[in-house]
Amino acid sequence: MTGEPSYILPAELEAAGVLAPEWRKAVEAAPRHLFIPPTIWVSRPGHRGWYPLARQDDSAAWWGLVNRDGYIVTQVDDDRPAEPGVVGEYSTSSASQPSLVLRMLAELDLEPGMRVLEVGTGTGWNAALMCARLGDNAVTTVEVDGELAAAARIALGRAGFSPTVVTGDGAAGYAPGAPYDRIIATASVQAIPAAWPAQARPGGIILTPYGDAYHNDALLKLTVNDDGTASGRFVGRAAFMWLRRDRVLLGPLREYVHADDHPDRKTTELDPREVFGDPDIDFAVATRVSDVSWHRVDAADESGEFTVWLLGLSGERSWASIDFEGHSPYAVEQYGPRRLWDEIEAAYGWWIEAGRPTTDRFGLTVGPDGQHVWLNSPHNPV
After folding, report:
1. Domain residue limits at 193
2. What is the Cα–Cα distance from 51 to 82, expressed in whole angstroms?
3. pTM here?
4. For residue 251, is pLDDT > 90?
């Protein structure tokens, strides 16, 4: 479109030091703007939800997001129409942050001659980058959403690429193309699907975002063994939307906390600022406490006071809260059969006793008996 801004993302990424030489040609060969739909979704300060932004209405804003090293929401509420006045509740697909895309591709250790399975086609840009390095015939990409898959096929073709694009459940992989040298997921999982190690070659790598409702910001790199098991470490941070089967879509607080609840009350000397919000602590606590989500609600008067809510996501309804009012002791309320704050406090204490391990000291092994997280060694399960 005449008069529109130029595509400058490659130069921006190179200037930031996140564009490795082996991926420079791929980023240039697969311009990101060819994969971004004409209407995207943006947030507004002070407002909840997602609002449509059409390229034809504000080309400068649209291009500003395309050329920025940030993610772009491309779908809300599983394809709610982008009509005037419509507000999306949940973001359900996005174009990932380019620097994160490139970091994950670097972790894959791709080499010519390898065959790769991508779970979560999304816009198709990640598949295009891999096609530029490996060739179209080496890349298979699976997308559960039929409309997203169709749009990705069009975008890939427009950019000159033709990988195998499959509409299906990425948790099942794609057996007709197996075995693969590499499997990469662009959606977060709570458990490694059995199909992924089964469809990878011995020595192959599986790279996936990993997490749960408590902490969804870890990148897991597994190597597949000769016996079909897979094991590896967490190699960084990567916050992604969920694989459909593992989604965590939380409703409003009133669905978990009722006005007529009568919680037990206690106090603690443990400062909630120490417990919540640090990625390493959150990850470690999540390995010890299951089916819990936490949320911080700041006071409206900008006093610095806040409340952390803990919500049980399975079994009988349970919740807890801890108030920060600038000094100890801190008030705690707990309701339901689970003592959620007590569980968190115990998990935090375990992390302290374990020497405050960072996330990269943890790993995961998956096999016929399921999966388990370990610390320092597969022989030391958490």
Report:
1. 9-85+88-236
2. 8
3. 0.94
4. no
